[in-house]
Structure to design on (286 residues):
């Protein structure tokens, strides 16, 4: 049995991996969260790798409070850059494959066509900067690595945009949502499937990849679809970013080109609204 370490073990992506891994035999998944293993402490990680025979490490752990990171830059850096570096170094030392989850926020959004893996990275926020630094630390620390940038992640687990919209739909009669930030909602369950596909195929096609669901949407479009699919009656108003000021700047356009991951792993990626429908059905069945 090959051991797979999943950091951020209580988060939404790890929870989705836990659902998907039932279809994968020959592997033992070890889910660890910050209260069990602090990725900002190198000696803890080294001791863990020394104790367990880790063959893959999937780093779902991240500081993702985008606005809060502007006032807690060191905290964000410790988790997103140092944590990734320490895990990557241990993977190199113990000959494990490192899978680092990154973000579309490494781009500034000034492009008007989908970003490829080789396009210039110029993040606008502390969160984006620290996640990009985590990518750089990964590349410089471990040879066997996959970096997967994703966007607008949601699921039936944890706190996310979908869950927030459903809650606000119950509480309010009217809601304003930004309409001029364009990207792609991504179901964490679909991302979990490709991560485990990489492992199951024992792939050595290391490098940076983009993964999101297919299609394009604004946050307003995403919210509108959530309310339509869940049959929630609410008045939804589109507003511009300048009307909804936040501490952190966000890319106005962060659609990612997924050609590389589709061709490398022979993927058919679901359309974002189809995946949304599936998640709402799961939530409705609970």
């Amino acid at each position: 049995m090959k051991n797979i370490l999943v950091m951020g073990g209580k988060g939404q992506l790890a929870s989705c991996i836990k659902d998907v891994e039932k279809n994968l035999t020959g592997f033992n998944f070890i889910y660890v969260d910050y209260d069990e293993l602090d990725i900002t402490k190198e000696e803890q990680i080294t001791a863990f790798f020394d104790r367990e025979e880790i063959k893959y490490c999937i780093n779902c752990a991240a500081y993702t409070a985008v606005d809060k990171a502007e006032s807690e830059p060191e905290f964000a850096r410790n988790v997103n850059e140092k944590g990734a570096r320490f895990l990557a170094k241990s993977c190199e030392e113990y000959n494990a494959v490192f899978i680092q989850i990154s973000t579309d926020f490494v781009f500034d959004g000034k492009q008007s066509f989908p970003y490829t893996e080789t396009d210039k990275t110029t993040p606008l926020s502390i969160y984006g900067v620290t996640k990009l630094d985590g990518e750089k630390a990964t590349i410089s620390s471990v040879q066997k690595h996959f970096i997967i940038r994703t966007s607008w992640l949601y699921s039936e687990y944890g706190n996310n945009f979908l869950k927030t919209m459903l809650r606000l739909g119950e509480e309010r009669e009217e809601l304003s949502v930004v309409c001029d930030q364009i990207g792609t909602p991504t179901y964490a369950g679909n991302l979990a499937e490709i991560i485990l596909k990489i492992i199951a195929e024992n792939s050595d096609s290391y490098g940076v990849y983009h993964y999101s669901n297919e299609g394009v949407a604004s946050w307003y479009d995403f919210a509108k679809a959530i309310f339509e699919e869940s049959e929630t009656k609410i008045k939804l108003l589109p507003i511009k970013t300048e009307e909804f000021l936040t501490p952190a700047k966000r890319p106005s356009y962060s659609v990612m080109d997924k050609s590389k991951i589709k061709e490398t792993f022979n993927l058919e990626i679901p359309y974002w609204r189809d995946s949304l429908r599936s998640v709402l059905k799961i939530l409705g069945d609970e």
About this structure: The chain has a mean pLDDT of 94. The CA atoms of residues 194 and 267 lie 8 Å apart. The first strand starts at residue 2 and ends at 7.
